[in-house]
Structure formats: structure tokens, C-alpha cells
Specification:
274 residues; alpha/beta; Elongation Factor Tu (Ef-tu), domain 3; Rossmann fold; seven-stranded antiparallel β-sheet; five-stranded parallel β-sheet; 5 helices; globular
Length: 274
């Protein structure tokens, strides 16, 4: 995860352990998203916390397995993990819980992966995790270590403004669905394609505004322009995640508009062109 201030306010999970999961199905939910549904006995020990709950995702390298994935990810275990040869070391990425279901037939965890469309000039080739998701088959294995919630729940009760691009859409959707039904504010969600727009069960007091990025425009520019038109002040809280320039510039705008720095949560997930 790139530059963020959410570590200071995050809610940690009660138990931190490696959970091994298997793919049960995949779905191309829109032009920009592939959903992978995971199951497995280890999910019985997973506690769904809602909001932008995220986790470390371990994927096997080609021809490899998950035996070298750490049981936890503190400083010592992370250093040991990095010492493993790349040919045997599982791929490590950060992802967000999109949905979780308890069922007598078996628990299921949904994870949405952003996949880059053909002709997108502002992104690098398909990221490793996205490529894995696009080729995942039932029975494939992955593993996760829960990291808890990044959203600062001490701001609940204040009007909130949220901004996200497609990389942060699962996190934004999770927050909107978990907010108290009395919440007020605006959520600006920028996506690459019209069919990426979806129904989100946000509180009635949250104005959810979708923006489809025009061809040739850099990610986050349209969302930032829309955010700059909102009237905000020192009573507000703010949350922004996605491309690093969007995150940086939205934070600067909100500080100038009077939102206290300690009420602006931000995470730069990625950088355009890298």
C-alpha cells in the first residue's frame, strides 16, 4: 500500500493469522472488474468487520505454492519473507473485502480485481494479481492475512465527502454500505467505463455521484474537478483513495477549504504510468 495516514486510526483484527482459501468461481462483473469468490474451512476463523476491511493477499508464483507465505506479517517475518527467492516466494498484494457471506453450505469471500482495458494509455501492463484473477480456476489456492479497517469511525456523525477511482471502488463501496443510515455527505466515484457503475446500498443522505472517465483523460482528474465544486468546511470529514495524484491534490484542496488534517483519511494505491 502506498502513502497513507490510515494506519494511525485503523481498527486491527482480533486475530492475525494466515488463512488458506480456494477459488470457487470467478465473474467478469464489468469492463474493469473481475470478481473472485473464495471459500475454504479457514474462513470460519475470519471475522468480517465491514467498511474498508483489507488484507494481505498471497498468490503462488507460476509452478509454486504457498508454503513460504508467513503465518503473520510483522517486521521480522516480513524480512524473512523477502529473503525467499522470487522463484519460490508467493506474490504479495493488498486487497479489500468486497463481500462476505456466512452459510451452512460454506462461507464465501468476494474480492474484486481491477483489470485494465485495451487502449488505456495511462496504465502499465496488466498487474500480476489482476492477471492471476483473469486466469483463476476453481480449486486454485490463495492465502490472506487480515489487516482490519482503515476507515476512521471517530468521524461518524459528521458530513463526509468521499472520492475514489476504480482501484479504491471496493473500499469506497464497503464504507458506504457500512455507514450508519443517518450519515450525510457526498461520494464521487470515477470509473473507466459506463458498465462499471453499480448499485451501492449507501445511506439516503449520501449523494453518490458516478463519473465515467472520458477517453484520453488521466485517472482521477474528473473526480478531482467534481470534488473541487463541493462546498465543504471545518465541520466535514473526508476520505480519498486511488491514484496518487488524485489523493495528493484532493487532500490539498480540502485542507485549503478548512477541513482539519486529522479528519482527512487518504491512501495512494497506485501511480499512473507505473
Amino acid at each position: 500500500m502506498a502513502r497513507t495516514n490510515m494506519q494511525a486510526t485503523r481498527t486491527k483484527p482480533e486475530h492475525v493469522e494466515l488463512l488458506t482459501l480456494r477459488v470457487v468461481r470467478t465473474e467478469r462483473v464489468s469492463s474493469s472488474f473481475v470478481r473472485v469468490v473464495f471459500a475454504g474451512d479457514d474462513l470460519a476463523r475470519f471475522r468480517h468487520m465491514g467498511y474498508d476491511q483489507w488484507f494481505r493477499l498471497f498468490l503462488p508464483v507460476e509452478g509454486g505454492d504457498l508454503t513460504r507465505a508467513p503465518r503473520k506479517l510483522d517486521t521480522v517475518s516480513f524480512v524473512k519473507f523477502l529473503a525467499v527467492a522470487k522463484s519460490a516466494r508467493p506474490i504479495l498484494r493488498n486487497y479489500t473485502v468486497r463481500a462476505f457471506r456466512r452459510s451452512p453450505e460454506g462461507d464465501e469471500l468476494d474480492v474484486d480485481f481491477v483489470v485494465h482495458g485495451a487502449g488505456d494509455d495511462h496504465v502499465a501492463p496488466q498487474p500480476t494479481a489482476a492477471a492471476w484473477a483473469m486466469s483463476a480456476q476453481p480449486g486454485d489456492f490463495a492465502a490472506i492475512i487480515d489487516e482490519g479497517i482503515g476507515f476512521d469511525r471517530t468521524v461518524l456523525g459528521r458530513p463526509i465527502v468521499m472520492v475514489a477511482d476504480e482501484s479504491a471502488l471496493p473500499a469506497a463501496a464497503g464504507i458506504l454500505e457500512a455507514l450508519p443510515r443517518t450519515s450525510r455527505g457526498t461520494a464521487i466515484l470515477e470509473v473507466p467505463a459506463d458498465d462499471d457503475v453499480r448499485v451501492i446500498d449507501a445511506p439516503d443522505g449520501i449523494d453518490v455521484r458516478w463519473i465515467t472517465r472520458a477517453a484520453g483523460r488521466s485517472p482521477g482528474v474528473a473526480a478531482l474537478e467534481a470534488a473541487a465544486l463541493l462546498e465543504v468546511g471545518d465541520e466535514h470529514a473526508a476520505w480519498v483513495a486511488g491514484e496518487q495524484s488524485l489523493v495528493r491534490d484532493a487532500r490539498r484542496h480540502w485542507i485549503a477549504a478548512g477541513i482539519p488534517k486529522d479528519r482527512i483519511a487518504f491512501t495512494g494505491y497506485w501511480r499512473a504510468g507505473a
